[in-house]
Amino acid sequence: MTATSAILPGEAGALRRGACPSIAAPMRTGDGLLVRLRPVATALTAQDLLVLADLARAHGNGLIEITARGNLQLRGLTEASIPHLAAGLAAAGITPQTGVAIEVPPLAGIDPAELADAAPLADALRAALADAALSLAPKLAVVVDGGGVLSLADMVADIRLDAVAGAQGLAWRLSVGGDRATAMAVALLPGERAVEGVMTVAAALAAIGPAARGRDLDSALLAAVLRADPVPPLSAASSVHPLGVHRIGAETVLGLAPAYGQIHADRLAALVRALAGCGATEFRLAPHHTLLVRGLRAEALAAAQACAMRERVWSTQDAPGRAVSVCAGAAGCAAASFDTHTVADALVAEAGDLLDGSFDVHVSGCPKGCAHPAAAAVTLCGTAAGVGLVLDGRAGDAAAAILPADALRPALHRLGALLRARRAEGETAGNLIDRTAPAILVSAYQGQQ
Q1: CA distances from 306 to 267, 274, 285, 310, 311 (A)
Q2: Pairwise CA distance, residues 87 & 433, whole Å
Q3: pTM
Q4: Helices assigned H by DSSP within 115-255
Q5: In this structure, are strands 262-264 and 251-258 parallel, antiparallel, or unpaired?
Q6: Count H helices, E strands: the chain?
Q7: Is it the case that residue 420 has pLDDT exceeding 90?
């Protein structure tokens, strides 16, 4: 048996997607070209961020995004301006990562609560994958999670290595196609075999073709190829959202998130200068659209959060908009049919007290659902006929009701009023929505009560 056989037949080519936008291959959007980048350096200085703000302003439209996986996106670029962006990054010593995306916890090697520093293993994997030059899916993702307060337990990946403490010492649990809880277990490997295990999976993916993803693989066949011992049940691991204040050993780290993941360069520059004045010494990109700030003096923490609020940046775990996934909308994407950010603001204004993090809301400009590919409890999706309400589904699913975009704010007000009236004391909004008949929610959305 070979790694090539560890696949599900008949799947090749079924999941082909476009490449991730990069400086070499930018993506055309409604507001120009978009470039996504992740600096090789895990720690950024204030000067690095100020340079990025300057470059975004000079060569794009000034809009900067932090993605759900902790990458940077610069918007509004042109074919003529991209070479200048590349030159500016090189001059500043900011080198974008290339090759297969390999994610590690943002505080890897710093957090004393982690089981292992994932960075050295991730570096070894990057080198092995680069040397192998396999033809893999452009959006293939690998997670190497050593644990810690801000682990990547909830990050979905095609290939995962999770540190596990066992009777024989530290080992790495290899799995495919999911997050820590849902990925299909393949093998429990000692550190010296972890790279071999990932390369076996990568070879199986390459054998299918450039559309293959981790979910297409047969984990049992992969385990047989690796001649691995059975994988014991995985211990429960909670995932802490990086937004807000965190105690990491003796250090306080502040997680900030631009509203809906987007900030203008002018606001970013003002924020970075203010944070530097509060003692910030280092910045790290993190999942969930977050920027981690290190070095803040304890007595300056409240001032730092106030600076963030002025620049429309969230700094607390209970920020209502945290529960809302929002795409670029009509302002930044030709496929979108309405202004998603305005609708998200209206949602927070009309029902912010219900956005307690117990359920997901997705505001999507079109049925592609780029900002939240998975199902959400509530989705507002742009269609040719208007904005559809999808309950417990994906953006592309059939809408239960459709309204014109200019009728959304009254509809959100009605939904908020309905749910507040039905909510029991101490009840989460997620439970409330689960026990409310869909027909009642649809009626309120349409104004038929």
Answers
A1: 14, 10, 20, 6, 9
A2: 51
A3: 0.88
A4: 119-132, 191-208, 219-226
A5: unpaired
A6: 11, 20
A7: yes
